[in-house]
Amino acid sequence: MIAIERIEPGSFADEAGLCADDQLVTINAIPINDLIDYYRAMEAEHLVIEVFRLGEILVVECEKFADEEIGLEVAHPQPQQCGNQCLFCFVHQLPKGLRHSLYIKDEDYRFSYLYGSFITLTNVSEADLQRIVTDKLSPLYISVHATDPLIRNHLLGCQVPAILPLLTQLAAADIQLHCQIVLCPGINDGPVLQQTIEELATLSPQVNSIAVVPVGLTRFRERLPVLQVPNQAEAARCIGQIRDIQQQFLQKLGTRLVFAADEMYQLADMPLPAFDEYEEFPQLDNGVGLVAHFQAEAEEALLEAEPLDLKSAVVVTGQSFFFHLQEVVKRMGLRTGVDIEVVAVGNDFFGSSVSVAGLVTGIDLVRQLRDMIKGRPLLLPDVMLKADEQRFLDNMHIDELRCALGVAVVVVESSAWGLLEGLELLAGGPVDIVRCS
């Protein structure tokens, strides 16, 4: 059973008498144990819903379209916990006092299926594997790092089952897999990387993509293993190796299959691949092809941009995206007539090696913008905030930022369209400014 958290007023669920705190037992005789059961059961057009309330079972029926909602929200399950001790675990690199959810080490195949979270498969049971296969929970996102069992055990900090047999079992059931390799120089690069990619390729096309991303390290690594972010030469060698493999795979498999993250090209000081070289952008959310995708989308947004009744605005981003965003913003300023300044916020909180927008903290925004914003409205990419809480990583609420800066702050989708819509919103009328009491 899972609990109903909220009923939308006036919805079918409301009219049928369902209530918050009712426990969903079955839908169409299917036991509802988690979100996957719920979402799949809700695809039916005729629903017979059993709920448990105050010791009794109540039954309601509903006719709806397949994609129609009935107006209830169910409780989000707590994820299974990760028992690994990865050398590069981000949670281990966090100081105290940040947003509570950051300290949760999740390792749950359900979250991988529902949200694209990467998992190592180290805690899946036979029952879990059977459910994945039977219910066709595909695609899944797998942190491989290395196929060599000894090296993978070292990276994960514990003894775990070999990964290739697990992936082979899933691939045999036609479960689509997106894999990632967090590259740690001196551990899983060079010949180890070659072996990992080649062995994963034997499971193509079920292994749908492989991303190679540089290890991310904060300044909070006291008493943690010594690791290094790839330097320019190491990143360049990795990219050269991947390019050679891509050419082989294009001829053999009809796909490049393996892709380096944008950050790897930045570290190597090398130009990014062309848009078409990312094929279907299978790992966009993992930082693979973000710039190319943004630039292509920007061309469409710029065609729609028109003059706006807005004098100026400030847009913030992380240091790694600054140059690419600045190019687009300059053109958007010419199209809209708005004087837009792009500010690259340095990550003093986590350290200079952390340069992505999604890891910018509220305190760094306050410190670096307070003296230069000069009353101009601020456009803030949504990746800096936890959507359902409107809080930065350091637990600062968006209203605290508004208060500290004394300007209008608009949170926009992290895209060229989001930027344009934010400017249009500011031009359309006054936006509330939060004043400190």
TrEMBL record:
Organism: Pelovirga terrestris
Family annotation (Gene3D superfamilies): 2.30.42.10
Domain of life per record: Bacteria
Domain Putative radical SAM N-terminal: 66-210
Location of the PDZ domain: 4-47
SUPFAM superfamilies: PDZ domain-like (SSF50156), Radical SAM enzymes (SSF102114)
Matches recorded under InterPro entries: DUF512 (IPR007549), PDZ_6 (IPR041489), PDZ_sf (IPR036034), Put_radical_SAM-like_N (IPR045375), rSAM_sf (IPR058240)
Protein name, per record: DUF512 domain-containing protein
Residue ranges annotated for the DUF512 domain, each copy included: 213-413
